[in-house]
Fold each of these.
Amino acid sequence: MPGGRPVTGVYLMLNYSLQQRQTIKTAYLFLFPTILVMLGVILYPFLTAVWMSFTSQNLGSRQAAFVGFANYKTLIASGEFRRAFGNSFSYTVISVLIKFIAGIVTALVLNAEFRFKGTVRVLVILPWAVSPYIAALTWRWVFSDYNGFANILLMKMKLIQDPVSWLSDPALAMFCIIVATVWQGYPFYTLMLLAGLMTIPQELYEAVDVDGGNAVQKFLYITLPSLYNVIVTTTLLSFIWTFNQFQYVYTMTGGGPGSLTHIISTLTFKYGIEMRNISLASAVSMTALPVFIVLSIYLTGSMLGKKAGSK
Amino acid sequence: MILKRPLKKILFVLLTLLCVIGAVFPILWIFFTALRPGSEFYAGNVSVLPRHWSLVNFADVLHGNFLLNIGNSFIVGTVVTLLSVICSILAAYAISRLEFPCRRFIARSIIASYLIPASLLFIPLFFLITKINLQNTLSSLIISYLSSSIPFSTWMLYGYFASIPVSLDEAAVLDGCTRIQILSKIFIPLSLPGIAVVALYTFTLCWNEFLYALVFVSTPGKMTIPAGIVQWIVEDDFAWGRIMAAAAISIIPTCILYLVGQRAFKNGLVAGAVKQ
């Protein structure tokens, strides 16, 4: 019996009829490969990482000694880690904010009626088709000291006399990393917000016209509230992804100059792969866990809930 | 919104132009860099457009390991896409149509595992892959990519399957169809656009993935494109012509897929994500 009532609890197999038992068997047979992958490539490694963060272990060594919270204590005492932890948040918050602004501006532009709209839409969303590591490489080249496009442009405009060393100054380097992140990431907001904009009934705006409201009021009182759900889902998804981005920092500065632009994910790589201290690396990656748990509890509910409601 | 006043119209056109240039220029810059001969970099003071157009960078790049890297990326992308589409069709059907214990829990776990970031998993995965001697193989990448592509694909297809009327499969059951027949005769044909989106997405995901590609494979000949290209940035300031040529080669397939599939992609994502 396909469809039918939703399962509300777990019963003993005995409580099911023969036909129901057949359905359950089929269901788990169909889900078997998916569950196998989830257990083997997600759950098991994840639990391994939790365990490793409480041990002292190097890559390739057989011994793993339990050391309790020693790795975490080392991290809290480490200036390098505290800096990376802070960087992760400032990098993510600023990137997400600018992506959102760029996304809403482009979505509003694309929601208007004008000639060549189709072409403009394809072009504005194009950075989405470029993979993040290529975006990072490209912007590293744009911000290169020698022959970089940023320097060429600013010198031609007479805004600077000598080339700027964009990626050797920690503050400027972080700025460049954010530029690259935003450039590749805003089209996702554009797509989601544009889809949201198209669902707002035109009558709502006409009602404001009747009351003599202006464009700003329309945006604040109709557009933003109508987009609330889309904005929350998009922003949270983007927050998780941006928080765990690895390629921009790794490719553009490698965490430098002097470890000042590391974020949690690149520091994990440095400790685990370059220094082969997988225990300390696991501890570093675990510090991102609270952010992930809080956001994903909300997101799993909203991503599934909406789907179930749309049946 | 029809713009009548000229000032407003000019501002709007300027804003639109700004958006387009901001979006497109970096991509053009990849090609402008790739298409100029190396001598232009040594001279300093590089012009915006190449003074001489040349394919020499592409010729320099397209041999040896990089050709292998391209081949590896195609193999990994194709295998993962095939496996992932099959697994997610089965899983999405079970979740949207079959009644079984823990259904809601499994659905939630699938979404949670889509959200779990690679940066949390790559250290233990590398450790495990080394343990079972899979390091430096394409299999290690294929297995790891399945862990992010199956959950996403299942979630997307679940949305498509949920929109297929239950009366259709009830009729099929009355006609004596098996589950597999219901899938192959009703669900797969009716959700072909969704399956296309999922396949495109999965292939792109594999093609673009960076972290696992960098960590799990260290032999140049076994690498996929991302790890292959990044090996070159350590070289020197003058390698940019070649690096950008390689970058251009790697974005051409995804840009074509995007242009071909952009309608389906957009509609698909919308159906999957924003439906209220």
Amino acid sequence: MFYRECGNFKDNYASDMAIFPIPLDRWGFIVMLFAAFVVVPLFASEYLIINIIIPFYCFALSAFGLNVLAGYAGQISIGHAAFMAIGAYSSFILYGRYGLPLIPSILLAGLITAVVGTFFGLPSLRIKGFYLAISTLASQFIIEWVIVHVHWISGGVFGTIEAPKMFIFGLALDTPVKKYYLVLCMLILLMTFGKNLVRGQLGRNWMAIRDVDYAAEIIGVNLYRDKLVAFAVSTFYAGVAGSLITFCYVGAANIEEFNVMTSFALLGMIIIGGLGTVLGSFFGAGFFVMLPIFINQGLGSFMEVVPADILSNIEAIVFGGLIVFFLIVEPYGMARLWHTIKDKLRLWPFPY
Amino acid sequence: MAFFFEVLVTGLMVGIMYSLVALGFALIFKASEVFNMAQGAMSLFAALALYGFLEQYLHLPLWLALLCTVATMIIWAYAIVFIVLKRLVNRPPLMLFMATFGIAYLMEGIGQSIYGTQAKGLNLGIPDNLYEVAGIYISSFDLFFALVAALLVGGLVWFFQKTRNGRALRAVSDDHEAALSVGIPLLKAWTLTWIIAGVVATVAGVAWGTRLGVQFSLTYIALKSLPVLIIGGIDSIPGVIIAGLIVGAGENLGEASSAHIWAGAFRPFSPISWRLLFSTLNHTAFSAKRS
Amino acid sequence: MSEKREPILTAEHIAISFGGLKALDDVSLEIYPGEIMAIIGPNGAGKTTMLNILNGFYKPDSGRIVFEGRERPKHMKPNHIAAEGIARTFQNLALFTGMSALGNIMMGRTMKMHSNIFSQGVYWGFSRKEEIEHRKAVEEIIDFLQIENIRRTPASMLPYGLRKRVELARALASEPKLLLLDEPMAGMNLEEKEDIARFVLDANEELGYTIALIEHDMGVVMDICDRIVVLDFGKKIGEGTPDEIKANPEVVKAYLGTAA
């Protein structure tokens, strides 16, 4: 009754092709932005901002990157965390060692990651499906190995570099709220850019390659170029997400943060959240980051302190169970559930 | 020269273990066209279960504990096929592939909830002595598991070539629909392959578990054997066996010859370099059937 | 219909074999601008193989293809051939099932869109103008094929007949110089066949497209085609107007067996 399309006439193609063609969605989005920019920094505790919301944003960015590759272009990658590591290390080196300004070093780190990612995307020109998945897994191990063993990159012991102090135009980013704003601004800019990409010509080309590659080719899509572009875009997002998460959350570039389990988790996020949707990347990342808290709350009523190993085991069980559940019941994840609810609302309360 | 052969033999014995794990992948891939990411988790779970039966909870004798472990893996196979895979019939293979991720998480979580997360030593009472054969030193421990693995591999090949069920499985792997139409039940075939994969995982888990201790990193063993799979061709069982031997030997030789340069770091890296080399050249080097 | 016109596409002495089986053996054919040409023949005659060669899926073992007066290089990729102006549909549908009907048809315009990745990501200025401009062109095709009401429907949820129509729309959207249709009416009922036949005729007469199609329904072929090429066991056994084909003894023999 309240959420509806009718009575909302479009008189040009531009408004029909807007991101949010329905006014209520547009208002909803503005409210969300308001909440993110004003409400969260005012009311959320520092613990919440640093440990939940910043990783949530960063993982959403990275999950979106993987979604471009796996959900849109149909090229499964199980080595995505390694690309986050490249972003993390290269931005630390650019900023800490060569003294580039913060924002350019983060973006440049993304570009470096994109170059490496394109290189590791080369096998996609020859192989598909499982074989490609395994080849991306190999890229995970190769990158990890290189980072740990090349001392010029990893610098210290166990591949760890401490975060330098952060300044933007002389303004020190020393409090959680300031870091939060950095992450939020990057997130909104890059997500808007990404959303435009996936709904435009390039996004359609990717989906065409995913659905029927030979038909895409005869309609004029350059398979090789667009697959590699997908790898480049996807790993760019991973790189930026990796550098943001190390600058603003972990505080030190540490290869252990980006091991193969993180790659698996990212894949799980986009399955649970929704393959091939922007919204799904947010749902999946949010779910993944908040899962430990839910479990803590749930178990908290039974015991005083939840031991870490029990927590991580239950996390694995719930995460795995949900992957299986969504694949069986709703292969397009939480984002599709959300759309189903919206479709119902559109007709509510008169569904006939 | 003796040193070369010693390294080669050790490498071959490790290679058999690689083939064994890779075989678990290849079996399930052949029967259901699914790449089973849970293979490592299955090895971990089997090793944990054996430890549980043997030392942690029940203190059973070894043979009984092994039997119970295999039974546990059979229960898992039924659960996986009838709770998960049954509902995913006729979905794109990539969906099944991702479902095995979920299964892997579930197995790890459940296994470590029951048996705890700390690393455990698994002692089966196999002597670890060095024997000298024709000037070459061989570890009895390596030899024992190489023999077990070789027996299992031989048994599997026999099963697939000679028995009725084995032929049925091969039929399913060639063409799902055609197999269904001549009356081979798909679910039964899948259950059988997952049981076999469970047994293979048990042997692999126990072997690597005794060697490295039962801990979470066992799941990575499966990942390490992936290059074997790529070189051998995912749908070819003889290919996988040969590739396992090549990788095992090559890895050990590569490590020995460049030992001072790479300081042992070569070991985790080398299977992958093998893989990258081969997969870009030709993704099924030894397999006659091209997909 | 003067006989002196230059053909838009010439295939000369095409031969291809798969593992010893000769799928096509020394087949030559021409397609003239503005005509509807049909390739007919019994099952396994090599019709789809011919189409696959024309749009570059298969490389012929021997023979050459000349399109618009230029000989096609040996290893030209299908997407470059598409860029030269050859579009096609498939016998068993190759719609992008994850997209809406509109998205599928917009794919037909993909070659004509040139904004770079940064412009697309910012979606301002040139990219935005381009997207809207192509949307207008697509809407005209949607009007033409009368599929306005299924614009937003995911391709996977469309009934078979409409999927065929969306695929035709996708091919038309690329404004090809030569349109290849592989059994556009297969598996349809009479009414749907009539619809498609009308669209094909309209596309030819009103919009001026050159069309080559494969079809089994002789009634339709005889009614709408200007010229027919008959293949049998990889060889060309006849060529001509519908009336000539009907009178050709070889063709009748191939279709009805030796008794005729």
